[in-house]
Design goal:
Layout lengths: L1 H22 L29 E7 L2 H17 L2 E7 L1 H14 L6 E5 L2 H8 L6 H6 L2 H7 L6 H6 L1 E2 L2 E2 L2 E6 L1 E6 H7 L9 H15 L16 H10 L16 H17 L9 H9 L5 E5 L2 H5 L11 E5 L12 E7 L6 H11 L2 H11 L10 H5 L1 H6 L3 H10 L23 H16 L5 H18 L5
Parallel strand pairs: 1-2, 1-3
Antiparallel strand pairs: 3-10, 4-5, 6-10, 7-8, 7-9
């Protein structure tokens, strides 16, 4: 039954992306790489490695920009040409989903996350990478060193005990605080605080500094507000579904968590929170207009960068706050996978292995600076003295990553994996719709109970329509 459900979802996605393609402003024309050349069709490329051109679909973030710059070295070493199709995240998901669902083969390598990987693997859209790793020579396997990649990351990128993508960078979540503002308020932050302690400190530093005591995302979206809020729900003992796939969004634990989150924003947070996403929150914290912020560990590098942050050297770090459950930090990774429709899988694997290797991290550190190397993927990065010196936050990030409880994110057992998301295909829409209800409560349009009553109905419908309930 599970297999047929994923197949049905695949058919729905194909129909959906066809509609999207027909409605797009591009008129269905091929996506162009950054340099403006047409993305080459797979069957028009030469079979010889020196004539092969790989097309990589990726997002436009700082780590991926560095990867494009470094790729010239890969091209010189292998003779393989690489072109990048750079898209905003939402557009990337649409274009890549269309390509993999239809087997068009426009892209050889795609940038996806640990949310997408097992779902796309189930649908047969991406290649299993374990066989390619097994075929490496002993020297190549030792050099790549898959065991150096954090175990929880490897597990999150696997399906049926096989890896289907390799991580380029990964993150958890943690609490940032302005040490000067806390000192002015006469309070200290423990390394492993509870949410009650955080709320109390937030109110004190707000009063002492006349700035928001804490910044939390309120912008609707499964990857915006729901990312931090889901970890709060987990901490309070809430969950999305019980083991029989009965929705639990209006349970006492989930209700208490959402009320806590919305009340904390109203009492000690930033005004207009329902329009605050990651970028807006980072701006508030980095310009000294907020005392604390709970969000992704990847932000640590931005806050510590003197070129872009007004609070560099003034930031303290703590683990994701707890309540009934400890180790509530999330787990997210941007990864590289090979499309099943690629005509150059062997060459694509060479690039994937190169871009996710510890040698690549070393090269980025030496040429671009150790503070900007891709974080969160390998033990060797966090053992490197050069990285530790450039990243004073590395120890707390490592603890956050190593304690992320991807398989059992909540107090009570659940039938799904994922911490800040539920790893089912329907969650992108469900999570966004639920976040919209909660945003309405945050803005005062309805109560939390009213919002979660509607959220409960939506989640229950997904469990029934998706065939998750027996």
């Amino acid at each position: 039954m599970k297999r047929s459900r994923f197949q049905s979802i695949g058919l729905i996605l194909i129909a959906f992306v066809l509609v999207l393609g027909g409605c797009s402003t591009s008129g269905g024309s091929p996506v162009k790489p950054e340099n403006g050349a047409e993305a080459p069709a797979g069957d028009e490329r030469s079979a010889g490695s020196t004539d092969v051109k790989l097309t990589v679909a990726t997002v436009n973030n700082p780590d991926m920009v560095v990867m494009q710059k470094m790729t010239k070295e890969f091209e010189q070493e292998t003779g393989i040409k690489v072109e990048f199709v750079v898209l905003p995240e939402n557009d990337l998901r649409k274009k890549v989903t269309e390509d993999v669902a239809l087997g068009a083969g426009m892209f050889d390598i795609v940038t996806i996350s640990n949310y997408d990987t097992p779902i796309w693997a189930q649908n047969g859209w991406i290649e299993p990478l374990s066989p390619y790793l097994d075929k490496m020579s002993a020297e190549q396997r030792e050099q790549y060193d898959i065991e150096d990649v954090f175990e929880m990351i490897r597990k999150a990128l696997s399906h049926n005990d096989q890896l289907y993508s390799l991580p380029f960078y990964a993150e958890s979540s943690m609490l940032y605080y302005n040490t000067e503002m806390l000192e002015k308020a006469g309070v200290t932050m423990p390394e492993n605080p509870t949410w009650d302690e955080v709320a109390d400190i937030a109110k004190q530093v707000k009063a002492a500094n006349n700035v928001p005591g804490i910044v939390l995302r309120g912008l609707p979206g499964w990857g915006e507000m729901m990312a931090p809020l889901n970890t709060v729900i987990n901490a309070f003992g809430g969950r999305w579904y019980d083991m029989e796939w009965n929705a639990q969004l209006n349970s006492p634990e989930t209700t208490e968590a959402v009320e806590f989150y919305t009340n904390l924003i109203k009492e000690a947070g930033q005004p207009g929170a329902f329009s605050t996403g990651f970028t807006e929150a980072l701006t508030l914290m980095s310009t000294g207009k907020a005392a604390m912020w709970y969000d992704a560990t990847v932000a640590a590098g931005f806050l510590n960068d003197e070129k872009s942050s007004q609070v560099a050297g003034k930031i303290g770090y703590a683990l994701a706050p707890s309540r009934k459950k400890d180790n509530t930090g999330w787990l997210y990774a941007w990864c590289l996978a090979i499309e099943s429709a690629s005509k150059h899988k062997e060459e694509a694997m060479k690039f994937v292995a190169w871009a996710t290797s510890k040698q690549y991290i070393e090269k980025v550190g030496e040429s671009e600076g150790w503070g900007v190397v891709p974080p969160g993927t390998r033990h060797s990065t966090y053992d490197n003295p050069k990285y530790k010196e450039a990243a004073p936050f590395s120890e707390i990030v490592l603890k956050s990553l190593e304690s992320a409880d991807y398989d059992q994110p909540t107090v009570d057992p659940v039938p799904y994996k994922g911490i800040q998301f539920v790893a089912i295909p329907e969650f992108q829409q469900l999570g966004t719709e639920v976040s919209q209800e909660i945003a309405a409560a945050l803005s005062g349009q309805k109560t939390v109970e009213e919002a979660l009553k509607l959220a409960q109905q939506k989640a229950e419908q997904v469990a029934q329509d998706g065939g998750y309930k027996k």
